[in-house]
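FAQ
Q: What does a multi-component entry look like?
A: The components come first, one per line:
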Amino acid sequence: MIGVKAGPRRGSTIARAGLGWLGLAILATVWQLLGMELHTAVFPTFITSLVAAWHVVTSSTLTTDIIPSLERTAAGFLISAIIGITAGMVIGHYETVRDWTSAVVDFMRSLPTPLLVPIAIVVFGINGRMVVVTIISAAVWPILINTANGTSTIEPTMIDTAKTYGLRGRKLFLKVVLPAASPQIFAGLRVALSVSLAVMVVAEMLGGGSGIGYFIANAQQSFNIDGSYGGVIVLGCLGWIFDTLFLMFERRLLAWQRGTVGGLLDV
Amino acid sequence: MSDSVLSIRNLQVSIQSRDGSMNEITRDVSLELKEHEFVSIVGPSGSGKTTLLRAASGLRPPSGGEVIFDQKPINDVPKGLAIVFQEYNKSLFPWLTIGKNVAMGAAEYSNQERAERVEKALIQVGLSGFATRYPWELSGGMQQRAALARAMVSNPRLLMMDEPFASVDALTRNHLEDVVQRLWDSSTFAALMVTHDVGEAVYLSDRVLVLSARPSTVLAEIKIDLARPRSQIETRRTGRFGELVAEVLERVEEAGRASVGIEDTIQK
Amino acid sequence: MSQVQLAVGLSGEVNEITQRRSKPQRRRVARQIGGVVVAIAIWEALSSTGAVNKEALPTPGATLAAISANVGSLSSALASTLEAWALGMLAAGVGGIVLGTLVGRSKTADAATETIVRMMRPLPSLALIPIAILIAGLGIKMTSGLVSFAAFWPVFINTRVGVRQVDNKVLETAKVLGLRGFKLLYRVVMPASSPMIASGLQVAISLALVVTVSVELVGGTGGLGQFILLAQQGNEPSTMFAGIIVGGILGWALSIGFARLVDRLIPWRTQRTEGGR
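Then the predicted structure of the entire assembly, as tokens:
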């Protein structure tokens, strides 16, 4: 078939993955040896931290801290996605709206969001709602900006074609603008996902009352240093799982895109 | 004028440029397109051929004059009019399979009839069996054939083509020209094609209109009295073909020279 | 794709002649200013009518007054935030570009770092704040260290991808022209991957600022973060807002400044044919 890009050979893919895990293993070994060599309370070994992480997910911390954190992140991320995609398509499609909002959007997205946590605590108190609001205030911008970019750079020919076949108004947005902008929207969503996790942690450290961020900070303050490391490992794994699930979802939805760009970047 | 499919009367198009001033692209273009007639519009680059086609199809409102399709003035892309754009890679939706892309042209039919029409259209352009492929899996020429199938699937009364073969190599272009000719021969639609390739215009058309440089008017109309059906080798071998090409080319050259003069004065 | 396109209003049309775009440009700026005015008016309306608790949302006027009343402490807080940010950013920028180039040029190193990157990228480095405090104590060394750790990843990842993606035809042409080794890297690979590196740096700049103020908030290590925290503890909402606005202006200035710099240094980055007919 003409134009089909041959994927990498299966053998080399496996070799690549193997090398990747080898790299990770080397890093873990260095950590382990360093921890044993230094032998200090503030830098536990890799295995000690791993055991602590296991304790975190098998103890009551799971229901008191981890699950609330996951719920807050999910809520904040989903609300950001709905607001960001809708507003982004409107801003991207209408140049006038873009002009009116761009300065304010630029300012808001450059604002280092953690600065809003103290004020959010004053308004909402120390609870999960405050965390969700803080997540939204940070995660909505990458989605909005990427959606607007994707929408405003759609090929005019594509819009012409859609009009030729009678697509107008909401149908035009749903059937053409949304899929055409979807690669960019997904890039924004992926950034927003890691932003959500990061902001969740810092908001919980400052005043979540519970959650994994609260747990990590609290463990450090109560000299449960292993627990603090364990919390970080759990969080890292959660981030990795989220990211992997997200990529799988994206691959499925954007399967059509495989041949149109020079191979999806896996990083 | 009951046998007129499309009638463009004193069409004028101006586009607002970035600095707010109006830029006259098309000054005064009129043309009548009869049932099952094949007309091409050629002109020097920058003569606003694409703009003309967009206004004639209802994709953009004209600044003056009117366009009558099937006895009704148009203000939007009417039913029964299909368009094939130059950039097949931008007009085929990359997230839809070839079959679904083609089916877009037949949205008003029932599911079963749509499937039959899609199948038939794909056979007509020689793409049967490719319905489940994505556009990127096909070569440029095949993608443009898919775009043609999408245009044909609704049995249009009028097919407009904007430089339909400009993005493919010369041999593929010959092949695509014959695909279009075969479709036109075996059907009843009228065709209006915009192109910068004089040989292609002469080979396919009943009439060729030469556009002047911007702001454009119709500079000349040349009747193509070549026998049909035409063939790439036999038709192009005839002396008459060469004469007609030369005649059109001469007019285009005149228009081009005039445009260079105009651009010079604009720059000064 | 790790590349984020930032700045809606900045990209594109650089290849247009200034004279031709002057009028719409002026109209665009007028609209942007109008947008800011509308936003401030909404803010004023929300706070002065009491629609939002006055304790939480002071009026723009009160915020402005708080900024001028705290010029001294605000500017020293700003200086301290900027210092920690700049140190961390410098280390992250240099480290990320150098390591990213080395890894991107070697297939083995590239594969070996793949999983580490996949693990580290989504790890919120903000979670490391308590651990960083444990190891390095409270101080600029800790702040900058954590900032550079966080900002390293986007620079490293984008450099790696950018270097890996340099067109083979470009490389072959360069080899035909006799460019080898360091010269090839410096004259061809770096310029070709610079747009990608620039977007990595752009992400890193914002991220570094977020980490800086987060450390300041959590650790109370001075700077804008601690300024706002103290205002919160003193129950002075207008002072808190003064800090937030100054932080926003700082973030905005840093990213606009970098975008301008990129436009100047890599003019071909924003080249894009706008859909004009």
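Q: Is there any commentary attached?
A: Sometimes. For this entry: The longest strand of chain B covers residues 4-16.
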